[in-house]
Amino acid sequence: MRVDRARLEQGQRKLAEQGVDVVRLGYADLIGTERSRDLLVNRFARTAGNGVAFCRSVYGTTPMGDVVDIEGGLGDGLPDVLAVPDLDTLRRVPWEPGVAHCIADMYNPDGSPSEQSPRAVLRRAVERFGRLGLTPLAGPELEFYVLEPHEQAPNGWRRYGEGAGNVYVSGLRGDPENVLLSALRSLGDYGLEVVAANHEFSSGQFEINLWHSEALDAADRAHRFKAAVKELARYRGKLATFMAKPFNDEGGSGFHVHFSCLSADGGRPGFDDPASPDGLSATARQAVAGILRHAPALAAVSNPTINSYKRFGPDTLAPWLVDWGLDNRSSMVRVPPERGSAARLEVRLGDASANPYLAVAGLLGAAYLGIRDELEPPPPLEGYGYDESRSARLPGDLATALDALEQDKELTDVLGEQFVRTFLTYKRNEIERFNRFVTDWEFREYTYHL
Length: 450
What we know:
Blueprint: H1 5-17, E1 22-28, E2 34-40, H2 44-48, E3 52-55, E4 80-85, E5 91-92, E6 99-107, H3 118-130, E7 134-149, E8 157-159, H4 179-189, E9 194-199, E10 205-210, E11 213-214, H5 215-235, E12 239-241, E13 255-263, H6 282-293, H7 295-302, E14 324-326, E15 333-335, E16 345-347, H8 356-372, H9 398-407, H10 409-415, H11 417-435, H12 440-446
Parallel strand pairs: 1-6, 14-15
Antiparallel strand pairs: 1-2, 3-4, 4-6, 5-6, 7-8, 7-10, 7-11, 7-12, 7-13, 9-10, 13-16, 15-16
Helix pairs in contact: 3-5, 3-8, 6-8, 7-8, 7-9, 8-10, 9-11
């Protein structure tokens, strides 16, 4: 662990000159929730000079506040990890005067990187890609719902701006209070490289696209994006959720990743080949093959909740089978029609509940293995998908996906064995807690007749 104190002091002076008096130092836990502390700028260099301590078990704290006994956590006496500011990520928060946000890298007290840190997992995957002489790029697309309070709703919330058929519209028609437009402007001022926004298929559902960049930067921006959208909704008395499928009568929310790479030597597009019949390079085809081979394990980090698997199924425009296609939105991996520098894969597997660092790390790891081993994909999907006779099904539940991740030793090696053990422990605890919980469905189904 190296902390550049001179640079911290320089940053402290610059922030003070800009009228910033608080730095919010944050990092992603296992499920992608932002964990953070507010540090006064006038003592920033001193406070952060040796790293800022957080309890390691915060990685494994559940949404309900339970502490899962992850490796090196509760059973070892709840020791610390240290958050060290990455000053390259320092950004002013437009909607909070005097506040700047900084992403932290996480370390163990002995100075070694924390392998349980999702950002460290992604760094590891990027490093593996570098061994191929390639720089991976990612462009995130995230969907989410905006909800508003309603006393008569069973859970206290209803979809904001309810109205059928507002697919790919802008303005007050699908967004009567301009919540989306306001968020787009604020996110643009935050330096997240957001480029476009629209109402999505379902009532109260929206999508905002982020420009592509190197994989770590793209995941940083996606992580900040999710936290910012939720915070901006709170300012308006609303709730933004990236839950995979919050409603029975509407579709789910996806996290699609547009993925490509550049050659490290000259920055040439790695997935383009004008001489091939489909315009794709051998590298692109190998990446597709790797993603398909490791798709069951990838589902564990790209579809990481019990609810995630209720988004899958025929005719949902969410993946259901392990397949790929040329400009085919019914496939798990879609190859958009652009070529040249825009040649890329759109990996449609993930849902919006995924931790961006882990979803991108898993994707890179699978593609790396395909390229390293020179795998060849099956023929691309022709026509509409969802035909089980043509392709294998993705896991149908979280438990199956976790088992696939545990059994995928190659992908585990890329992501890190300690991280995978920690992730499996945390997520299997989630399944155990769910299996003991009496749901509304059970009450409705059984109480009257049984």
